[in-house]
Amino acid sequence: MAAKKGDGLLLVYSDVAPENDEEYNRWYNEEHIPERLSIPGVLSAARYEAVQGGPKYLAVYELSSHEAWHSEEWQKWLREPTEWSRRMSPGVIGTEYIRNLYRRVHPVDVPAETAGAGMSPVLLVGRMSVPDELDAKFNEAYNNERLPLCLSIPGYIRARRWEAVMGSPKYATVHEMESLEVSESEGWENWRTAVTPIWTHEVRPHMVHDADSPGVYRRIFPE
Asked: What's the pTM value of the predicted model, to 2 decimals?
């Protein structure tokens, strides 16, 4: 079975003016996503719309490695965009545009079940940073105190954590869920407010979320 998830991730957040919305979505779904999926190292892709937080749209590209973005095939599309891309790309018409390229920092390896999994129906994505002196403690507490508690939440699928190699803030956590109800559930609220020794008292008071983060997103393409 071909891998659908790997060691790299590209997240592209955007919003556009209302008069461009319909064509923008057609361009993304009909041209842009197929283009990117034709590039070696792009394993899968999907688009999401915010139901909480923002920006409004999120395109997610699962990569074999973050190096896929630097490949000649990818850069050729950037140097030689189609006429439609020249008019509709988020770098041209976006009222908001964030492009972050990541390498995975947790888990260390991609389990076979994860590697073969498709794009989740719902994502909750947090974009955050901590002071440099708390970096090691932040990662230790997040990986070993926080994330194991998620696995008991009904409808929760998995979490992966990422470090930016392009863009900011430094870290992103992508939580995958079966439905929007999971992010509104008692189980999720209990996780969100759970008290753990290092995270609660030493790390969380110093962690800063980016604007409109965390965001809850439902998949809109493919439906």
From this structure: 0.97
